[in-house]
Amino acid sequence: MRLPRSVETADVAGKRVLVRADLNVPLADGRVADDTRIRAARPTLRWLLDHGAAEVAVCSHLGRPQSDADRTRFAMAPVAERLRSLLPDGRVRVLENTRFDPRETANDPGFARELARGMDVYVNDAFGSAHRAHSSTEAVAHLLPAYAGFLLLDELEHLGRLLGEVERPFVLVAGGAKVDDKLAVLENLGGRADAVLIGGKMAEQVRVANPLSFPVELPLDVVAASSFDADAETQVVDVDAVPDGWLGLDIGPRTARVFAAAVRGARTIFWNGPMGVFEWERFAAGTRAVAEAVADADAYSVVGGGDSVRAIQELGLADRVSWVSTGGGASLELLAGVELPGVAAIPEA
Q1: Choice among 16, 254, 306, 310 that is catalytic
Q2: Residue ranges of the binding site for substrate
């Protein structure tokens, strides 16, 4: 895999540095609800400060602003406040939401020039946005000496291990609602895996019309519900015995045992997507069983995708996983074999 040059090779003493970070965090009541991504940005920012950067200007998008009203909802002020509390250094300033300017997503060179104005060095540490060819992730990298931050490099290293020779058995676990979003990853990794376990709504889609070119393991039983509701009537049934009009909202206990056994016996694991509607406790057992098996396995384990990452963190198991990816769509594209624009724009190491 092509690796971009590291920020560690940059001369930043006395320089003004533009950093593209991934500070796209959830907000609640005008405050940061989860600062995981802000904390993940700190090592690169700390390194720049420790090595004498005169100024560090941090830019990021936040949400998907569509209207003038969103300029208040998605303003960077709460993020900047939280970053200041974690990294109290007057040399750091947070720029306003890059997506407030429509030129950002158009990868407009004029907007890139505005971001680069007065800056001496550019560092991209936003792996979660590296699959987007936007002004702050791609165009600006051609205007300043460009380097990769520590988080970006860590993501490339850890995810890249799945694309090379892996220790076997290699088990791939996929779930969630949409097979289309993960089809390219499944095709790229699944044919090399020793077992591909599919749960969640994705399992229903694959069962009806399997678009994959290799065998997969689907649920044997499900927790069926009379409606899509946290308090709906439920029963555990075989997959071919779901009552008409009912929904499978979690893998059943038999499937959970089979999936967990396969995961625990693996030496390499990639898990993306929950096994059911884990946000509701009555339908969380399947996802919990997989998460615990990933944590228990004597394996190189990678968890990616917002919902599976959320599950592993809420269960307190993240520190027992080899790598928890912050990447979302970027992780999927990288593992599908796609070159990421934000990475390609940085010179090689």
Answers
A1: 306
A2: 22-24, 37, 61-64, 99, 132
Annotated binding site for (2R)-3-phosphoglycerate: 37, 99, 132
Tell me if residue 306 is catalytic.
yes
Q: Which domains does the chain have, with CATH numbers?
A: 7-154 (3.40.50.1260), 165-335 (3.40.50.1260)
Q: Are 297 and 266 in contact (CB under 8 A)?
A: yes
Known binding residues are: 22-24, 37, 61-64, 99, 132, 182, 248, 279, 305-308
Query: Cα torsion at 153, 156, 159, 162 (round to 10°)?
Result: -130
Q: Is 16 a catalytic residue?
A: no
Question: By CB neighbour count within 10 A (0-12 exposed, 13-18 middle, 19+ buried), where does 163 fall?
Answer: middle
Nearest-5° Cα angle at 54, 53 to 56: 70
Q: What is the pTM of this model?
A: 0.90
Provide the pLDDT confidence category of residue 210 given band limits of 50, 70 and 90.
confident
Residue range 89-134, pLDDT digits in tens: 999 999 999 999 999 999 999 999 999 999 999 999 999 999 999 9
Q: Check 16, 282, 320, 329 and give the catalytic one.
A: 329
Label residue 183 by pLDDT band (50, 70, 90): confident
Query: Residue type at 87?
Result: L
Q: Are 23 and 94 in contact (CB under 8 A)?
A: yes
Mark whether 15 is an active-site residue: no
